[in-house]
Design brief:
One of its GO terms (molecular function) is helicase activity. Pfam families: DEAD, Helicase_C, HRDC, RecQ_Zn_bind, RQC. Its EC number is 5.6.2.4. This is DNA helicase RecQ. There is one protein chain. The protein has 615 residues and is an alpha/beta fold. The chain has 4 domains: 204 residues, Rossmann fold (3-Layer(aba) Sandwich), CATH 3.40.50; 194 residues, Rossmann fold (3-Layer(aba) Sandwich), CATH 3.40.50; 98 residues, Winged helix-like DNA-binding domain superfamily/Winged helix DNA-binding domain (Arc Repressor Mutant, subunit A); 71 residues, HRDC domain (DNA polymerase, domain 1, Orthogonal Bundle). Helices cover 43% and strands 12% of the residues. The protein has 27 helices and 17 strands. The strands form 4 sheets. The protein has a 7-stranded parallel β-sheet, with helices on both faces. The two termini are 37 Å apart. Bound molecules: adenosine-5'-diphosphate (ADP) and zinc ion. Zinc ion (ZN) binds next to helix 16 and helix 17. The site of adenosine-5'-diphosphate has 18 residues, from helix 3.
Length: 615
Amino acid sequence: MNSPQPNPLQLNSPHSNSPQSILEHTFGYTHFRGSQQEIIDTVVGGDDALVLMPTGGGKSLCYQIPALAREGCGVVISPLIALMQDQVEALRAAGVRAAFLNSSLPPEQAQQIEQALLGEQLDLLYLAPERLLQPRTLDLLHRVPLSLFAIDEAHCVSQWGHDFRADYLHLNCLHEQFPSVPRIALTATADRRTRAEITQRLDLSEARHFVSSFDRPNIRYRIAQKDNPRRQLLDFIRNGHQDHSGIVYCLSRNKVESTADWLCQQGFNALPYHAGLPADLRAEHQRRFLREDGVIVVATIAFGMGIDKPDVRFVAHLDLPKSIEAYYQETGRAGRDGDPATALLLYGLEDVVKLGQMAANSEGSEEHRRQERSRLNAMLGLCEITSCRRQALLRYFAEELPEACGNCDTCLEPPQTWDGTEATAKLLSCVYRTGQRFGASHVIDVLRGSRSEKVLKFGHDQLSTYGIGADRSTAEWRGILRQLVVRGYLEVNSEAFGALQLTEACRPLLRGEEQIELRKLPAPARRAESGASRAAADIAPEHAPLWEALRACRKQLADEKGVPPYVVFHDATLREMLAARPQTEEALLSISGVGDSKLQRFGDAFLAVLRDFPH
Ligand code: ADP
Ligand code: ZN
């Protein structure tokens, strides 16, 4: 049998455009992750999709591959102008004909891109929503074949969220004006309300919905009582995150500045970032964070939205986030590349007081303030629980994790607890006896036998539960209560003035068939990170010279091209090179993350390094 002639130009020749082949040749990966394949098949087949996937889940491929597999140019709508350039650069490095149009481009360049679009020379075009909605842009789009519309950060259509963009509301015009072009909307925002809003406002009720788990298994959650926060932070970084990129969040600008200064004195490459700094300095610090290795940004929450850096290895909170949503979002900036990362939160009583005051004094209605307060309480509950943090976190987003995760502080070093069964039974029955219509303060007043006006008015001094909890302070009861809320035994009904209500889960407790362990308050101070739990990303000493050489090679190529190092290759790809030590182009191509285009561009440089270190 004749074997086909080897094709010397094979690397350049257009390969089959099946999703699998694009995944392998263009992106250098072998397998689809999670529901990527189903999503891609849906869009390639011309149907609409709504995709809810956590940060780092791999949303980009869900529209990039269909855009390449289908005829025409794919239009990506993204609110984050700052990100477009990096995304386009990363695509170009993979050999994809991508471009962006936004207000930052000089007119000549914009015109060139429009010409490329009209000449059908683009696979993907990134647009800000306001640009897309200009009649001129819509007109342009009507003149070329389009493969799809991808609506990224689709939660921006939600008026309840903090990222609301009025322009997103008009995106339903795409459906009307381009009925035959499939749309895929994507977001990492988990809650049902946002999802319902996206569906309704973007006309996606006919679309297939893909809801992934919001678990981020590679992020290790650690929450500790504040003891000596600077010392705790230092221990944490030195034990497992030395030389890593990270973000440290503080509440105030002053604290951002002083913490960054202090980290620099300790020998770290730390940069401050907050809204009070001049715009060009902020941009410079953001740029250095993206381009240089091992930079720590100390920031207020002003920093983050629009940071797409995949290799952030830790996020540390020196102040308590306002809500679990905020905590999840901020910690979610760690480990997008799937490698081990840690989220450390240090909290203390002062945070609780400060945030409570902020919630109480915030603008808006009484209802709004109460909701802020209850979000804060849920966040505190997460801090205080003794069971798996990840389970509680996911439960907050209505997701059940069947088993404890083994990768959070409470799983790794079970905290000190006490048998709270009796106290819990008292509290739950008091909630029940008062009719599940009252908030925490009143229930605790009844428990402690207060003669407050409200207690007397409702005759609650006549209840069997009146005064049965006089042995504990209000603060202790609040601590117990918060733990019960976050563990799902009690709900705070925000539609009924914060009334506490029993859930199904508490039946066995009320019947005395279940024991409950509560966290001792205050939790004992503990050293942050131990050697045993060092991030797996760490490199064995004998491999260090090659590792450093690979990183230097990546940095040099990145600098030459003016892109961040991860646009060349991710850490995971370098680590695979380290383990496999490929010596030929073929062997290099089998490394995950090395596709045809990257082999061509960067292959020789990396092979030269690798050949200096044979197996
Ligand atoms: P998201 O937009 O959901 O936050 P990204 O699309 O940026 O996530 O993907 C996160 C990381 O996972 C990226 O580094 C991406 O290259 C990588 N990735 C995505 N899909 C795959 C896959 N099928 N195989 C290997 N790596 C993948
Ligand atoms: Zn756990």
